Amino acid sequence: MNYVESLQKAISYMESHLDEEIQIQYIAKEANMSAYHFQRLFMLLTDTSVAEYIRRRRLTLAAQELSTSSVRIIDVALRYGYETPESFTKAFRRQHGMTPTEARKENRNFTSYNRLAIQVSLKGADPMKYRIVEKEAFEVIGVHRTFSMVTAEKFNEVPKMWHESHQNGINDRLFTLNNGDIKGILGVCTPSEAGEKSMEYWIAAEYKGEEQEGFEKLTIPAATWAVFEVIGPMPNAIQDAWTRIYSEWFPSSGYKQSLNIEFEYYTDEDPSKEDLYTEIWIPIKR
Q1: 58, 88 in Cβ contact below 8 A?
Q2: How far is CA 110 from CA 61, 86, 186, in A?
Q3: Local structure of 86: helix, strand or coil
Q4: Residue 209: how many CB atoms within 10 A of its CB?
């Protein structure tokens, strides 16, 4: 099964179980991915979380049922995972701008989210520069926070974390302590010990030596890495590169991700520079 087929199979699984309880591990299994990697990939390609997609689709179907049938509102609420009429009404109003009762009136306009279709480009109009790097396991030190993968909060919170790290001097300390082969600051994404619905984000630097006050250590395992060059100001350049890697490069490369960890590499240059150089490191295998 190829990359695109795997994603479409996972989407089909979600669609066929919208009126049942859906566990993320079973969705990810359909795509032959870990729950962590599938949620990361889904969010990168769609700008929304798996949970938000399921919620939107359920409320879309609920509106269709209420407007075309006489089924009881409580039965529709229960079918789509809402335990009380109050919780269903709140979610319904947030998406459609009306209550379930009002949805039964004629000529109502609903906010409909259609079934997702993953589209990828196998040509890639613009070239992507990358290299393959074999690297042994290494240690980094830094600071980290846990972010939910149920929502898309990381897209807003990670830039805030970088801003705070710059303001309080953490970045400067990491540049000073950086004594490994990778000369720069790393933004590392890895699964969280809190569970499959969250991730850890580290601002760190490769470091060999004793523990440093205020920093924790993380071991990056040995791997074969695809290292992508990114040129442009933050955060748009790096976000666009992630999307292109998963929508263009992976489907046509013959590679797949080998570990549930990846990182971005940054220099100490002005992040708003038009020609800023950064990198994305992703562990791969054939």
Answers
A1: no
A2: 11, 19, 44
A3: helix
A4: 10
Of 221, 34, 277, 228, the C-alpha closest to 128 is: 228
Helix (H, G, I), strand (E, B) or coil at 10: helix
Query: What is the tens place of the pLDDT at every residue in 194-251?
Result: 777 889 999 999 999 999 999 999 999 999 999 999 999 998 999 899 988 988 888 8
User: Of the CATH numbers 1.10.10.60, 3.40.50.1110, 3.40.190.10, 3.20.20.70, which one belongs to the domain with range 3-104?
Assistant: 1.10.10.60
Radius of gyration for the alpha carbons in the chain, expressed in angstroms and rounded: 22
Cβ pair 249, 240 in contact under 8 A: no
Residue type, 262: E
For β-strands 130-135 and 216-220, DSSP reports them as unpaired
Instruction: With CA atoms as reference, report the closest residue to 63 among 27, 12, 99.
Output: 99
Q: How far apart are CA 204 and CA 120, in angstroms?
A: 32
What global pTM score does this model have? Answer: 0.87
How far apart are alpha carbons 218 and 277 in whole angstroms?
A: 25
In the block, residue with structure tokens 């580290």: 202
Q: How crowded is the C-beta side of 173, counted as CA atoms within 13 Å?
A: 15
CATH number among 3.30.450.20, 3.20.80.10, 3.90.1150.10, 3.30.70.2520, domain 130-285: 3.20.80.10
Residue type, 176: T
The structural domains of the chain, with segments of one domain joined by +, span 3-104, 130-285
Q: Tell me the C-alpha distance between 157 and 208, whole Å.
A: 29
